[in-house]
Amino acid sequence: MTTVNDNMEAQNEEPQLSKPSDSKTMVVTTSAFQFLVPETLPTEEVPEENQTLDPLSTYPWSEGENEDTLETLDKDEQKDETPHDRPYWTNKTEYFLAQVGFSVGMSTIWRFPYLCFHNGGGSFLFIYILMLFLVGVPLLFLEMAAGQRMRQGSIGVWKAISPWIGGLGYTSFMVCIIVGLYYSVLLAWNFFYLVQSFQSPLPWLLCPIANNLSAYDPECARTTPATYFWYRKVLKATDEIEMGGLPILHLSVSLFVIWLIICISMIKGLKSTGKMLYVSVLLPYVILFCLLIQSLKMKGANFGLKNLLAAKVPALYSVEVWRRTGSQLFLSLGPGFGSFTAISSYIPRSNDCVIDAFAVAFLNLVASVTITVFVFATLGHLATKDNELCYMMNIMTLINMVDAEMIPPEAKPPKNVYQDPSSLYPSWLNSLPEHIKIAILPYLVECDLSEQLNKAGKGVAIVAFSNIITVFSGSTFWAIVIFTLLVNLGLSTMVGIIQGIVTPLQDTFSSLREYSKLICVPMFLGSLLFVRPSGSYYVNLLDDYWASLALFFIVILESVAMAWIYGARRFLADLSIMLGRPISPIYRWLWCFLSPFVLLVLFLSTLIHLSVKKITYFAWDSRIVSPPHSPRNRPHIPPRRFPSHSPNIPPPPKLSPPESISFSMSVSQHLFCKEVQSHLMTVSHCMADFT
């Protein structure tokens, strides 16, 4: 007969397991976990005798504080059943769309093709893919897993890991606020272009007629219609950054519409936000596929793709190329904002965040490569057209010279050369006798397809896209398509940025949960600062000189905090139990050594780069108005973004005042150093200014 005491002793000897009813995660007590250590955590050291090991509650402070600060998984799940439960995404699809939407933004469309063109083509792609999977994916996994494990936003996660690094969460919170303020302005610009696209002809195709005159506006005649429309009609840009003014009405209305859409998407919390993501995330991929097919059918597209795939070996050894690649990786992928952490805090703990990290990175890469192929194919088409025009000019020159009896009649091109100048003209020219070639070559313009590609590819931004649209037949339709793509990408990114703001606020002040949508009001009012006539210059300075440096600093501290303060082994033990399977120990090596080293090098190189160069911005100089030049005699100022000489862009000639105004101050004084160029700006300036 078994006594009551015997039953109690038997119960104490058995390992006790508890499994929450709504979770696949099994939680074990300390005694049971000791039996599972060899199978579940092969990388962990075997505990000494009489030593307990509980990876779900071992944190880098005292044991007494462990029990009060962090609860076990089963207690968390019981807490989730209360009326004030933390909400979940409606399904895994909406959660995944939120992660992808935040990762693939406008910088992927604007900045990536530009950097790829000017930093080695295939070499840049190789460096980007290497850094994406060795540095980007582990950091994505870290942020997703931290939010999923702690079920809190950036502030709560880093406070829970250690009170000493709680400020890291506040830093991410502030970065989201500042970036959200000016990123919404980028979105408003694209929305205004989208509205203006519903007319034919497009307003940026032709220069406007000057008042009471039959000639074009002289300011527009000095530049391209697209550049004039951007600076004078959209931005109404001032000559200098110090010239402020009231917010521009049409941009303020566009900005209000953007924030209204964001606010409406937040009315029912994650439920309404998730429904919007089906459109704002999936539609851009459909549009990208259509643009890709359309561009590949154009004449000369293969030449642009050859230049994309041609790897330039010297770029692999350039520190500047690696720095720019790293900057693009973090600005495009998005670690450091705290948004991945916030979005992951609304998903059950059993979700496989390892696969999610790889999938998000892969789709980001697909979008980047797709838009780059589209841009290079289009640039190849533009270069081919320009090269054909160059051939036609030479043909007309030869015909006129033969008619004027300046050169022998044998130098007159045949009539069939007009059918395909790109192939027939070079072959005909090479077939001429040597003495005739020597006689006519001094009168001809050198037509180099590679040089035409370099001229066509000086920039890829909002003005560049507006110029690219003119290549397609039915430009109005394609303008609507392209700017719909940009607006949807911007909206999905703004959803992630807002989650990086709202989630920490709700975790810190639970009473704000019902009023979270009101965050749109102060954000809209703050964004009005950037739609003033000089606002675009501040957007340029913040995006170029502040955002990347802040993100590098945040991600370095995240890696150190999780890998060394909390402990990479300890965190992997948490995830092994949370996901129900072991995690590859390679992440411990990546978090502890490779990621901090690469991030530190990128941070220091960026800091050095900013300290030794002038802080510049390009401005529209309305004081320079002169009679328009003919197209052949129009002065050309090669575009330049930075005072430091780029290997791909020749330095511009020195200009006499008032065409060039230069003003600089010491960077240590925290004052804007500026170099104001005249309004003779090509498409490339806009890419360098507003990516």
From TrEMBL:
TM annotation in the entry: 95-113, 125-146, 167-192, 248-267, 276-296, 329-347, 359-383, 477-498, 518-539, 545-568, 589-612
Keyword set, alphabetical order: Membrane, Metal-binding, Sodium, Symport, Transmembrane, Transmembrane helix, Transport
Biased composition range(s): Basic residues: 631-643
The annotated region (Disordered) lies at 1-25, 39-86, 629-656
Topology relative to the membrane: Multi-pass membrane protein
Q: Name one GO molecular function term.
A: symporter activity
Family membership noted in the UniProt record: Belongs to the sodium:neurotransmitter symporter (SNF) (TC 2.A.22) family.
- Tell me what this protein is called: Transporter
